[in-house]
Design brief:
The complex is a heterodimer of chains A (604) and B (302).
Chain A (H helix, E strand, L loop, with lengths): L1 E2 L2 E9 L4 H15 L2 E7 L14 E9 L10 E6 L2 H8 L4 E10 L7 H13 L3 E5 L3 H9 L5 H12 L4 H11 L5 H15 L10 E2 L9 E5 H11 L4 E4 L6 H10 L6 E4 L3 H13 L4 E5 L1 H17 L3 E7 L16 H6 L8 E4 L3 H18 L2 E7 H5 L1 E5 L14 H6 L27 E3 L13 H21 L4 E4 L3 E8 L3 H13 L4 E6 L1 E3 L5 H6 L1 E8 L10 H10 L3 E6 L8 H17 L1
Parallel strand pairs in A: 1-8, 2-5, 5-6, 6-7, 10-11, 10-12, 12-13, 13-15, 14-15, 19-20, 19-22, 22-23
Antiparallel strand pairs in A: 2-4, 3-4, 3-16, 9-16, 14-21, 18-20
Chain B lengths: L26 H16 L6 E5 L7 H4 L3 E4 L5 H11 L4 E7 H7 L1 H10 L3 E7 L34 H7 L4 E6 L3 H13 L3 E7 L19 E4 L16 E4 L5 H7 L6 E7 L5 H10 L16
Helix pairs in contact in B: 1-7, 4-5
Classes of the chains: A alpha/beta (604), B alpha/beta (302).
Chain lengths: 604, 302
């Protein structure tokens, strides 16, 4: 038995065969034992792609640790895979560590002898340790009786045994997960699990042990979209309007279940445009509202975002980014909506963009978005991404804020976003901002330019003033921003800068580089537009400033965030990681790139 | 219906806001006056009224009514109105939209607004032309009419707004003309009293760009649909030569059949009681056992 404190493994199966379900059960058991977990589902863009094809790759990547983890890590130490085609496909991603153990199910080998042998050889040549196994005949018979379902339970059994998880402890989680299944089917699933558990695919000497810790605080297990949905409720938002789009839809699903029980309403709109229109209508009537979407939906909402700016009706839009453009990679991650969020819409419409890096951020971002949107009366766009939306984490039970009057927002929520309280004297274009129902305050809002009385005005001065007032709202937010989160050295050779979901990789990479004696710092932004003042001073404390982004860039095309930072600071910010591979950034890759970069500039 | 204890009757003057800026002879002036008359007759309080519009000449109405109002973006007044209906169901909502706003850029919202049957009065200002963008072909432009976008004449047959509304499942469909003052106000009255999405088609003059669309000086071409119990009375003052046809607005089949005669018939085409989406959504929350906010995260504790 080998004690482990940090380990990454993955379960790969054909889509629809329940790999994520098995992964969820396993991480719940780990989490309960006090092990920190981070899970990244691998989901195909199609619902049921043909099985035994590369398109069918589905699964769960799971990272375990004795201490808090902020990202999915770099490489897997162990892989359990259903058949040779999925292994072949996943080998291309180069995410297995040297000497990685690959447990390969030989169930399909009879019909694909050559392919199996080829991929086994390829894996062995790459230095991986391929261990093959067959599902037992009794288990196969049960799987057949369940119309082919239940193979995931066999694999779950193998993994549970391998990690020395108590059998009955794990079965309790299977029962919890499948509580709606008829008893005979549940029993068959448990039996299949037990066959897997007893299969002895690996020697006991090779089995792994995570002792876990006893948590002092109460812990919760949440993914980003669920945390965001719960945050919407805690932030006092009472209307959600949305249109189905991957990967934002699960926010709507959670709120459909929860919002009515907390006094709110859920509206599925006829399209993306309508959804934000309903949010704006609700806010005009004085009821805080939110919509969530993904890239293409953000494009569709842009005209209404312009109206929100001009009419000074607040609105909150969540954009769970995915690979683009167009349908792009709907189940892969990217950070390429930055410009669409910060500079989108038409005719100079200043707005605020806040990003999230983890489950905690997702929970508190609706609060701070509401605060800024309502105090400044403008649109606030929240940028999440696929990786954050689907990744589960164990975190301390989140302290609730129960936001009602935004002026009384808790300091700890603002602190979480590195922000001070906004000024009490932010000027509006229109003096009267009352909601319907209030006598003698009747007012009309419009997308046309208006003066301070709210009446339409086309004069040169009045239009210029309106632009000035709107821009100054953004300046007020800028003035309220504190220096964002920093890691490592506060001056030196290199500063790694990122926003949103790159936080975990930056923190881990900087820590590792500093431990190796490299003079490097890290800077991570949650507020991405506007940016805080005095960034130039910070940037100038380092010889080089580079960004870490999940976005394409090259020598002739700067990445979005580096371009934004260059224009804001006039510093020579370059993209260090400018990749659009749809995979989260690996800390090890960041470390290697940083080292290579420093080597190159020192030799130049 | 008065909704305040303070008895300050609403007057025509109270409802005036800034001065309208439409062209001389524009039918929107009479719609504005008719709307004010209707509010005074029904004593609808200004603070509880929201006029919502898209873009176009019709879109300016909210500015000229001293109520709450939103002049929003092209074709998208309905989603905003629904947001207001869900947030504050006690408010009285009037949506103003032109033929292009309703049936071109806003067609999807109109389809779903009608189907959702949420509580509002929908006024479709039909002048059969794009006005504010200067005379392009609209979805209701008569086939063959030369326009700057179709100099050889509008190419396809116009959309029939009444058939569209009926097809979408409307619970209230009426058609009137702004120059027939009494008929117009009475139509608004019936629409307002109907619970749900009340679709009112209004023949509207555009002397600038499409003067031939509606012959308002002669009334021999039009027919009033009249039903003693449910309908809207014929307006003999405004249209002395009009024909009058006895018609029951309760039959969907009759409504679909008569819609073929649009735009020559005026009156209440169809009326039925249908479930209202706003009520269903709000009731779902009302009927749900409310949870304590302190328990929000309990299901996620490990």
């Amino acid at each position: 038995m080998q004690k482990k404190s940090n380990f990454r493994f993955e379960l790969l199966m054909d889509a629809g065969n329940g790999a994520q379900k098995a992964g969820d059960i396993l991480i719940k058991a780990f989490a309960k034992k006090g092990v920190y977990v981070f899970i990244e589902p691998i989901i195909p863009a199609e619902i049921s792609p043909p099985k035994r094809t590369p398109f069918s790759l589905s699964g769960a990547v799971i990272r375990l640790s004795d201490s808090d983890i902020t990202n999915i890590g770099s490489f897997s130490d162990l892989v359990l895979v259903e058949h040779e085609i999925l292994l072949e496909r996943r080998l291309q991603d180069q995410e297995f560590t040297e000497g990685c153990t690959i447990l390969l199910d030989l169930g399909s080998k009879k019909r694909a002898q050559d392919a199996y042998e080829a991929v086994e050889k390829k894996a062995a040549d790459a230095g991986y340790n391929v261990v093959s196994f067959m599902i037992s005949e009794e288990a196969e018979a049960l799987i057949k009786s369940l119309n082919g379902n239940g193979k995931n339970m066999y694999y779950l059994g193998i993994l549970a045994c391998l990690f020395n998880v108590d059998k009955d402890f794990l079965i309790s989680f299977i029962k919890q997960t499948f509580k709606k299944l008829p008893k005979d089917k549940l029993d068959s699933n448990i039996q299949i699990f037990e066959f897997g558990f007893n299969a002895q695919v690996m020697d006991e000497a090779d089995s792994l042990l995570f002792e876990g810790i006893t948590h002092k605080n109460e812990k919760v297990l949440l993914d980003g979209n669920t945390a965001l949905a719960l945050g919407v409720i805690d932030a006092g938002i009472r209307l959600y309007a949305g249109y189905p789009i991957t990967p934002a839809s699960s926010i709507m699903h959670s709120l459909a279940r929860l919002l009515p029980a907390y006094g709110g309403v859920l509206h599925q709109a006829e399209d993306e445009i309508s959804a934000i229109g309903t949010v704006i209508g609700s806010y005009f009537a004085g009821v805080p509202a939110i919509t969530a979407t993904s890239g293409p939906g953000l494009s569709l909402k842009q005209e209404f975002i312009g109206l929100s700016v001009a009419s000074e009706i607040p609105c909150i839009v969540v954009d769970v980014q995915r690979g683009g453009p167009s349908t792009g990679l709907p189940t892969r991650t990217e950070q390429t909506d930055l410009f669409a969020a910060a500079y989108g819409s038409h005719g100079d419409g200043p707005k605020v963009v806040i990003s999230v890096a983890n489950v905690d951020d997702c929970f508190y971002v609706p609060h701070v978005a509401r605060y800024i949107a309502e105090v400044c009366r403008l649109p606030v766009i929240i940028l999440s991404d696929y990786m954050i939306s689907v990744s589960y984490r164990v975190v301390d039970k989140l302290k609730q804020s129960k936001l009602d009057d935004v002026r009384k927002i808790d300091d700890f929520v603002l602190d979480h976003f590195y922000m001070n309280r906004l000024s009490d004297s932010i000027e509006m274009v229109k003096e009267n901002q009352n909601s319907p129902g209030i006598p003698d305050q009747m007012r009309r809002v419009t997308g046309l330019n208006t003066g301070s009385s709210g009446a339409i005005e086309y004069s040169a001065d009045s239009n210029h003033r309106a632009h000035e007032v709107r821009s100054k709202k953004i300046h007020a937010v800028r003035h309220a921003l504190k220096m964002p989160e920093r890691f490592g050295s506060d001056s030196g050779d290199l500063l790694l800068v990122g926003w949103g979901s790159s936080r975990g990789a930056i923190e881990e990479a900087v820590q590792s580089l500093v431990n190796d004696g490299v003079d490097v710092g890290g800077l991570h932004f949650k507020m991405v537009y506007p940016l805080p003042l005095n960034l130039t001073d910070i940037f100038q404390s380092y010889k080089h400033v580079v960004t870490v982004e999940m976005a394409y860039g090259d020598s002739l095309k700067a990445t979005p965030f580096s371009m934004m930072l260059r224009s804001e600071t006039l510093c020579d910010v370059q993209g260090l990681i400018c990749e659009a591979k749809g995979r989260p950034i690996k800390p090890i890759y960041l470390i290697e790139k940083a080292q290579a970069f420093l080597k190159e500039v020192q030799h130049a | 219906m008065p909704n305040s204890d303070v008895v300050n009757p609403v007057t025509m003057k109270d409802l005036k806001s800034s001065d309208p800026r439409w062209c001389t002879g524009c039918g929107d002036y009479t719609i504005l006056v008719g709307l004010r008359k209707f509010m005074v007759q029904n004593q609808i309080f200004r603070e509880n009224t929201v006029n919502i519009s898209g873009i176009g000449c019709s879109g300016r109405i909210p500015h000229y009514m001293n109520t709450y109002g939103i002049h929003s973006i092209h074709g998208r007044a309905i989603p905003i109105a629904l947001g207001i209906a869900l947030a504050k169901p006690e408010l009285k909502l009037f949506i103003h939209s032109g033929d292009g706003d309703s049936l071109s850029i806003g067609g999807n919202h109109l389809l779903h607004g009608i189907k959702k049957n949420f509580n509002c009065v929908y006024l479709l200002f039909d002048n059969q032309i794009y006005g504010l963008t200067k005379s392009q072909t609209s979805p209701t432009t008569r086939q063959g009419l030369p326009t700057p976008s179709h100099p050889s004449g509008a190419m396809i047959e116009p959309i029939n707004p009444i058939s569209f509304a009926l097809g979408a499942g409307a619970s209230f469909v009426a058609t009137t003309a702004e120059w027939m003052g009494n008929h117009f106000v009475e139509t608004l009255d019936a629409a307002f009293k109907h619970p749900g999405f009340s679709f009112v088609h209004i023949a509207q003059r555009c002397p600038k760009f499409n003067p031939s669309a509606w012959n308002f000086q002669d009334s021999s071409w039009l027919t009033f649909l009249v039903d003693e119990q449910a309908g809207i009375a014929a307006d003999s003052k405004s249209a002395p030569d009009a024909k009058v046809q006895s018609y029951s607005p309760h039959s969907y089949e009759n409504a679909m059949a008569i819609s073929k005669d649009v735009p020559n018939v005026f009156g209440l085409v169809y009326k039925a009681e249908k479930p209202m989406y706003d009520k269903l959504v709000l009731d779902a929350t009302k009927n749900q056992k409310q949870k304590d906010l302190d328990d929000l995260l309990n299901d996620y504790i490990i």
